[in-house]
Write a structure and sequence with these properties.
single chain, 114 residues, mainly alpha, 2 domains, elongated
């Protein structure tokens, strides 16, 4: 029994040292990979970073311009619908310009379907 306890007593610290050695080796490999990846950052010049920042600011300006254009187009679309309905109402008052019953029913059915 003493020989078994002695063997177990030595194996536990030995396994712990082996695991610690493996962890150190994996950390060294990871550190080497990070070092290789960051070498590219040293090659960048300051002008590149400035151009990159300039490009991002231009993209931000384009985004705000696009939002403004979209809002204006929505307003124009609403105005055009209003003008179309106003013109249609006025033309419907004129007997010769009034659409046929079939066209009116089709338009009513189309309006209900939406």
């Amino acid at each position: 029994m003493n020989s078994v306890m002695g063997t177990v007593g030595l194996n536990v610290p030995l396994r712990a040292i082996e695991r610690l050695t493996g962890a150190v080796e994996r950390a060294a490999v990871l550190l080497e990979r990070v070092e290789r990846a960051t070498r590219h950052l040293d090659k960048l010049d300051s002008r590149f970073v400035d151009r990159l920042n300039g490009s991002f600011s231009v993209l931000a300006d384009l985004r705000s311009d696009t939002k403004a254009i979209r809002a204006r187009l929505d307003e124009i679309e609403t105005d055009m619908r209003d003008l179309e309905s106003l013109l249609t109402e006025r033309l419907d008052r004129m007997p010769l310009m009034r659409p046929s019953r079939r066209e009116r029913k089709a338009k009513e059915a189309e309006g209900k379907a939406e």
